Amino acid sequence: xxxAHLASWxxxxxxxxxxxxxxxxxLGERPDPPMDDAELTRMVVTxxxxxxxxxxxxxxxxxxxxxxxxxxxxxxGGTSIRFGGDPEVVTYIPLSAGxxxxxxxxxxxxxxxxxxxxxxxxxxxxxxxxxxxxxSSSAPTRLVLIDDMGHxxxxxxxxxxxSGGGVIALALEAGLPIPESLQRLxxxxxxxxxxxxxxxxxxxxxxxxxxxxxxxxxEEPVGMSQEIQSEFPEATFEYxxxx
Length: 243
Fold this sequence. Notes:
about 30% helix; alpha/beta; five-stranded mixed sheet
């Protein structure tokens, strides 16, 4: 719902396979050797650079990696924080992610513009952690909190399967033994009363606006305010910023 949307706006989007976070990884079959997420992300940027210079490549001569942005959901939000400090990164956008309230586990945030977006009913990453990250970030930073959206709302995981509910729901229907912790992680925000697809236009709008501004396409970010709520009648949100 997000990567294809961003590509439709002209961005070259690389969606990375972090195999350590796949279902097989959660069930105990982790890759050997495991890959560091920030290192793997760097490898993907290097690959895009190589394809840009390769004759006959689909990306030949059309990509610039002098400016890079990163967004990620949940654990991917953590990756966006860890990779966000790289020199060519112009902005990082964590979705359903935050920082720990434990000083010993506190993550250093990149000195880069950021956009933090989460659901107000996230039961996996307490929205207070997202708010704390926003409040600790270097300006300019922005925050979007979507009402009645759970942890998986800013992703398309909940829509997998004919009846929705995501891959974990499919596994449970098939009678597979899924650990309780993974059941909770894989279903939070997928309930009948949760805002899912109705909130996607809000996610798309704010991420696109942040990217267009960070890449210098728009001199000022477009529609970054509470005033655009009227444009999204199917879901409501709360917006804040520190400039």
